[in-house]
Structures are given as structure tokens and as C-alpha cells.
Design brief:
Elements: H1 8-11, E1 15-23, H2 29-39, H3 45-57, H4 73-78, E2 85-91, E3 94-100, H5 108-115, E4 120-126, H6 133-144, E5 149-155, H7 164-180, E6 186-190, H8 214-220, E7 234-235, E8 238-240, E9 252-256, E10 261-263, E11 267-271, E12 275-284, E13 287-289, E14 291-293, E15 297-302, E16 313-316, E17 323-333, E18 339-340, E19 344-349, E20 352-366, E21 371-374, E22 378-379, E23 384-396, E24 408-412, E25 419-425
Parallel strand pairs: 1-3, 1-4, 4-5, 5-6
Antiparallel strand pairs: 2-3, 7-16, 8-9, 9-15, 10-14, 11-12, 11-16, 12-13, 12-15, 17-23, 17-25, 18-22, 19-20, 19-24, 20-21, 20-23, 24-25
């Protein structure tokens, strides 16, 4: 497949795809991304020259395309990816934002960052090694984060003589595993990132494969950015009250519409108070509009003077989420310090941050067979498990399956602000939460005892 020269006027009409790459160490993620950038003519001349110079200094004759994404000095010296490397590129058919995530098990939490906003995940597997534990871990994270499209790229096919049976065995094993996690769409592609087979150009070495190349699939996979069809949600960020001679009684609620659309005259409910009122005006970019939709940043004015502050949620009166103080969720623990039963934390949901206590950790997921290790008592870095959290104040959460924006939250260490855990409210592929454990925390503080 020949990639034409990009034209600015074409890019204005193309769609945007956010995707993440993941896989075990040395599976070739950075090389794949570098090959995509290079072969799609998305690399500037000075960038390519810098990579060629760095490659020569390391004694390599050909440019090491992995260096296009491994930007940290430690990464270049070790030949691994540590941080999440974001890259932007475009073809005449689509624009892309990609996140090249680390392969080491201790950096699995970085994949949560990279895949949290992705519509597609590319999971790489070394054809010589097949599906390994880290492959299963990345598939599980993609399923937890409800990434709608997953691509299995079986890399280094050149090192197994482009053998179709090798690819078929790996594809079958991964597809069965990912399907058991509830991944809705799985595409398998045999590639050699180093040689460029089936990355941008079809491979002459694998005539037995009749599917798309990686870039062709990225350009054509259906992507829906229509958040207006979702449940309308407006987290309040700031209350605007200028109290000037020109606007003596102005009271507006500013924020970004998380999902759905709001209209002037619509009946809405303010949560967690449950008060109902009507939208009287919507201000966007200094002008009044009759309708606004996600992800616009607007100011909404209401008919009644209701006590509303940062963290409150405005939703349609007939489609408001349930309010609760007991949050059951699947989480990925991202901090070095463990998360334990009875631990006091801060829970951040959209623009609202409240005190909370971890009441129970019913299970931890075992990735080998998707079994649940019951009552582990704590989660350590990179663990995936189920938790029950009790909050000091009511929260208006959606199920993560219904809304990735208003169904997600973070647990934060109140002492130093460290992010501890990324949470997805509601059900997941994990087993149902068991009976709650009775928590007896030493030195209970009444301020946190709720």
C-alpha cells in the first residue's frame, strides 16, 4: 500500500483515533511505532537524522526506528521503554494520537494511563515466545478499561520463517483469552516491525495472510466520537458570580460537558442534593446558545438559586445517575505502597473529591486462568482486584460500562497526594463482589468513621 503525501486541507476532514501499544519487554512496540511513523512519512528530516546519528553511535548500521519513541536517555541506553511516549501523526485518511506504553511488569500501571482514553489497543507478541503473562495482563487492562477494539500483532515473524502455523496457534490462544474477558472485537495481524512486513506495506513473505496491514486497519476501524448519544452529564468545575454593575445577579455554573447534550428549557437534577430545576441559558465562548454537547466547555444558568458548588453534577431530570456512598469497583493499583482494608483515602470522581475508607478487598485477579484470589487483604503495585469503598459524602457515579468519563475514579493518598489506584465503578469481567468484611481499624478517627 502506497501512502500519498499528506495535504493540510485533507486533514481537516479526517477522523481522530486514539490508540495504545502494549506488550512484553523486547516484543518490538517501539520499533512498530517507529516503523509506522517512518513508513507513513510522518517523521521530520531532522528527527530521522538524529535517530541515524544515535544508531551509528551505538554501532548499528541501519537506523533503529525504536529511538523515534524511546525519548528518555535511560530508555535509549537500556533499549527499553519506561515512560508512556505519546506521538501524533496523520495520513490522508485519519489523524492519530498513540501512546507507546512500557513492557516491564513494574510499569503495567503506565498502560492504564495510556489506554484510559484509547479507542484501540495494539498488543504485541513475540512470535518465538507466544502469549505470556504480561500479554494476558495487558489484555485484561484493555478489557477493564472497555477499549472497544484490540489488535494482536504477532511480531518478529521473520525469526520464525514467516510460518503460518506459528501465527495461527498464537492467534487462537490470544483470541480465546481476550474473548473470555469480554473484549468485543479482536483483530490478529502477523508482522515484522523490523523488516516492515504488514505494518504499512503488505508482506511479500506472508502470501498466506489476506487481511489488512496494521496501518490499513488503523485507518479503517470504526471510531465513534458521538458522546451526544450518552447519558448527559455536567460536572460543575466553578461557580461564576461576577457581581458587577453590568451583571449584578449573574450566577453560572462552568465546566466541561462529560457526555450527552443539554438544552435551554430542559428540566435537570442537581446531584447529590437531588434538587430539580430548569436550564434557562447556556453560554459558550461568550455567546448564548440553545444547545451544547460533549466535550464543549460551557456555563449553564438555572432557573432557581440552588446551593451548587464544585463537584456537583447536573443531569437530565429523567436520566440522573444513582447517588451512593458505597462504591463497588474493579481497580488497578498503581502505587508502590499497597492498598489495604481499612485504609483512609481520598476518592476523586470528575470534579469532586471526598474522603473515603477502603471497607473490603474481596478478591484479586489471577491472570493465568482469570480466577479470583479471595480476600487478599491488600493490593500491591500492578494488582487488579475488586474493592468496596465507603465515602464520607454521596457520589453520583455511573457504571463504567455505561460511561468511561463518569464511571471512573482515582484513590489518592491524603497525606501526600499520591495517586494510589485507578477505579472502574460497577461490574466487570471480575467475579461478583462477595460479602463485605467487617473492618476494625485501630485508632479510628471520628472524622473518617462513616
Amino acid at each position: 500500500m502506497t501512502i500519498p503525501t499528506r495535504h493540510t486541507e485533507q486533514l481537516s476532514t479526517t477522523t481522530l483515533l486514539r490508540f495504545a501499544t502494549a506488550g512484553s519487554v523486547d516484543d518490538g512496540k517501539s520499533t512498530l511505532v517507529g516503523r509506522l511513523l517512518h513508513d507513513s512519512k510522518s517523521v521530520l528530516t531532522d528527527q530521522l537524522e538524529a535517530v541515524e546519528h544515535a544508531s551509528r553511535s551505538r554501532g548499528q548500521e541501519a537506523p533503529d526506528l525504536a529511538l523515534l519513541t524511546d525519548g528518555l536517555r535511560a530508555e535509549r541506553e537500556q533499549g527499553i521503554t519506561i515512560d508512556v511516549a505519546y506521538r501524533y501523526f496523520a495520513t490522508p485518511r485519519r489523524r492519530f494520537i498513540l501512546a507507546d506504553t512500557p513492557g516491564h511488569v513494574q510499569y503495567t500501571r503506565n498502560m492504564v494511563t495510556g489506554a484510559s482514553t484509547a479507542e484501540l489497543a495494539v498488543v504485541l507478541v513475540d512470535a518465538r515466545n507466544g502469549v505470556v503473562e504480561q500479554t494476558r495482563r495487558h489484555a485484561a487492562v484493555a478489557a477493564l478499561l472497555r477499549v472497544p477494539h484490540v489488535v494482536l500483532a504477532v511480531n518478529k515473524m521473520d525469526l520464525v520463517d514467516y510460518a503460518e502455523p506459528v501465527f495461527a496457534t498464537i492467534a487462537e490462544e490470544f483470541t480465546a483469552y481476550a474473548a473470555s474477558l469480554g473484549v468485543p472485537e479482536i483483530t490478529t495481524i502477523p508482522i515484522s516491525a523490523l523488516a516492515g512486513d504488514n505494518v504499512v506495506e503488505p508482506s511479500a513473505e506472508m502470501d498466506w495472510y489476506g487481511g489488512p496491514t496494521v496501518l490499513e486497519h488503523l485507518e479503517t476501524v470504526p471510531v465513534s466520537h458521538d458522546l451526544t448519544a450518552c447519558h448527559a452529564r455536567f460536572p460543575v468545575q466553578y461557580v461564576i458570580r461576577p457581581r458587577t454593575a453590568e451583571h449584578p445577579d449573574y450566577r453560572g455554573y462552568a465546566g466541561q460537558i462529560a457526555a450527552g447534550a443539554f438544552r435551554v428549557g430542559e428540566a435537570v437534577t442537581v446531584l447529590p442534593s437531588g434538587r430539580t430545576t430548569t436550564v434557562t441559558a447556556i453560554d459558550a465562548l461568550g455567546e448564548s446558545v440553545d444547545i451544547a454537547w460533549a466535550p464543549q466547555s460551557v456555563t449553564i444558568r438555572l432557573a432557581d438559586d440552588i446551593d451548587i458548588s464544585r463537584g456537583d453534577l447536573i443531569a437530565p431530570a429523567g436520566d440522573a445517575p444513582a447517588v451512593t456512598q458505597d462504591v463497588e469497583a474493579t481497580v488497578c493499583h498503581v502505587a508502590d505502597q499497597p492498598l489495604t482494608v481499612g485504609q483512609r483515602v481520598l476518592l476523586k470522581h470528575t470534579t469532586r473529591t471526598v474522603k473515603a475508607i477502603v471497607k473490603d478487598i474481596p478478591s484479586r485477579l489471577t491472570l493465568d486462568d482469570l480466577s479470583q484470589h479471595p480476600a487478599p487483604g491488600r493490593l500491591v503495585a500492578n494488582d487488579i482486584g475488586r474493592i468496596v469503598v465507603r465515602t464520607a459524602e454521596p457520589l453520583a457515579l455511573d457504571a463504567y460500562a455505561d460511561s468511561r468519563r463518569t464511571g471512573s475514579f482515582l484513590l489518592i493518598d491524603p497525606a501526600d497526594g499520591t495517586t494510589l489506584t485507578a477505579g472502574m465503578a460497577g461490574a466487570s469481567f471480575a467475579a461478583a463482589v462477595g460479602p463485605q468484611a467487617t473492618v476494625t481499624a485501630a485508632d479510628d478517627d471520628a472524622e473518617w468513621d462513616f
